[in-house]
Amino acid sequence: MSRSIVFSAVIFLSSLFSARAVFAETEASAPVSAQEQAASPAPAEASLYERLGGEQAIASVVEVFTAKAASDPKVNFTRQGTPKPWNATPEKVEVFKKHMTQFIAGVTGGPQVYEGKDMVTAHAGMKITHAEFDALAADLKAALQEFNVPQKEQDELLALVETTRGAIVEEA
Ligand code: HEM
What we know:
Mean pLDDT: 86
Distance between the termini: 43 Å
CATH class: Mainly Alpha
Shape: elongated
Bound molecules: protoporphyrin IX containing FE
Radius of gyration: 20 Å
């Protein structure tokens, strides 16, 4: 499915939800007392996974993000000139994208089970620097922006990615 179709579907669905919310507001007739309001809990917010549009939408972002990171000299994704160069064969890149999608889906509240290595093991010996990590995060942000992901969801995902820094960066 093309990216634009996935995102049109997401936008269509969210417009349905907001239309429903407006409808519900105009229909409500009985006044709600302050006591009743205080007693009813605030409706739970959808998970970040759902707000991002689920697995298909996340896979589309990962596709664009991987292309950006792989061609970004500031990231040096294939670790050329380091003790652990990575041979980015098409097969390995596919596995990477699959695992990255599972990883993001899992940490944002999706039902997916992450099947890859833990972050320390996956990056051990790659000598990833803070500057490289920052460049990768910027590529992810740029990919999210391309899909018009709202600022709040961008910030939440980048905050989750930030929690992996200590496991990935090997620099004092
Ligand atoms: C500059 C920063 C980074 C570089 C250069 C980098 C590089 C790589 C490379 C080359 C691999 C493939 C390893 C292999 O298949 O043996 C990999 C795997 C992976 N990375 Fe990163 N990474 C970076 C940051 C991150 C961040 C911030 C995350 C999490 C948000 C992440 C998540 C993953 C995942 C999920 C895998 C798959 C592990 C597996 O297949 O077992 N990486 N990374």
